[in-house]
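If it is no trouble, might I ask you for a protein's amino acid sequence along with its backbone structure tokens?
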Amino acid sequence: MELGVKNTTQTLEIADSRITEYFQRSEGQWHSERRYYTLPEGNTQEIVSHLTIKFLELGSPELIELAKLHKLHNPETAMICGSLVSWVSQDSVSGKKQSEGSTIFGVRG
């Protein structure tokens, strides 16, 4: 293997490792608060969101399905890791639910 190819491979492996670690460390329960201002009316909306982040490892059914949706080659190994993120958001003043949903993030290897 040429030196340049070897260094590139090592760099990619380190990057993959760091990305995986980032996604692993993001797993858990999260809380977000934000405020929206509507100009010129001056309306203010305060939103509180509760997020759940689940780490997805290589070969997880969710990542395989995501790879298939995007028509990636070798869907079982196309993504090195990812996250399943779900949330519920509500207006903190009225208590009215604003949004609820989930999405999947995948990292191509």
About this structure: The longest helix spans residues 3-26.
